[in-house]
Write a structure and sequence with these properties.
This protein is an all-alpha fold. The chain is 60% helix and 0% strand. It is built from seven helices and no strands. Helix 1 (9-32) runs antiparallel to helix 5 and helix 5 packs antiparallel against helix 6. The longest helix has 24 residues, at 9-32. It is elongated, with a radius of gyration of 22 Å.
């Protein structure tokens, strides 16, 4: 059996996309080590998510029979986020790079979000590649300065060609 390399235009695009995908994987893996700077445990993150749920959905726990608040209620005086606003919670998560149900990657770490989109473009079919380009272009039109800069970079590194 002879070994040969696919040197067609489509084959070369595939190789370039695979290499770019590997680079994005390596970068994202390194970056992930910077997340959760406060080293919150799984239970701590659950409390954080529950706090978001209480604030965003205006969920109210029933008071205990003696009129006191349960320990999971943000009104309890020993609750870790007692008195915090939704904005303060989001800022805390962004500052400490905490990704959870309420703080997605695109909110916490825009650069990782863009690099992840580049990876999706590399690994995806033509429909996924088209979706990624639409997201980049939408961010260029409506995003803040950081999103625009990163989207412009994303569009400059994706490998385009024959589909």
């Amino acid at each position: 059996m002879d070994f040969h390399i696919d040197k067609t235009k489509k084959g070369m695009l595939s190789i370039r996309r695979k290499r770019l995908s590997q680079k994005m994987d390596e970068w994202l893996e390194q970056r992930q080590k910077e997340y959760n700077k406060t080293n919150l445990s799984f239970d701590d993150i659950q409390i954080l998510e529950d706090t978001f749920n209480q604030l965003k959905r205006r969920t109210v726990y029933h008071t205990n029979s003696d009129g006191s608040f349960s320990t999971n209620d943000i009104r309890h005086r020993h609750h870790p986020y007692q008195g915090w606003t939704t904005g303060e919670l989001y800022k805390f998560c962004r500052d400490n790079m905490i990704v959870c149900r309420w703080t997605q990657l695109k909110e916490v770490d825009k650069e990782s979000y863009i690099r992840n989109l580049v990876k999706i473009h590399c690994d995806g079919n033509s429909e996924k590649r088209s979706d990624v380009k639409k997201k980049f272009n939408l961010l260029l039109k409506r995003g803040n300065d950081e999103s625009k800069r990163l989207s412009k970079w994303g569009l400059s590194v994706i490998v385009e060609g024959v589909d």
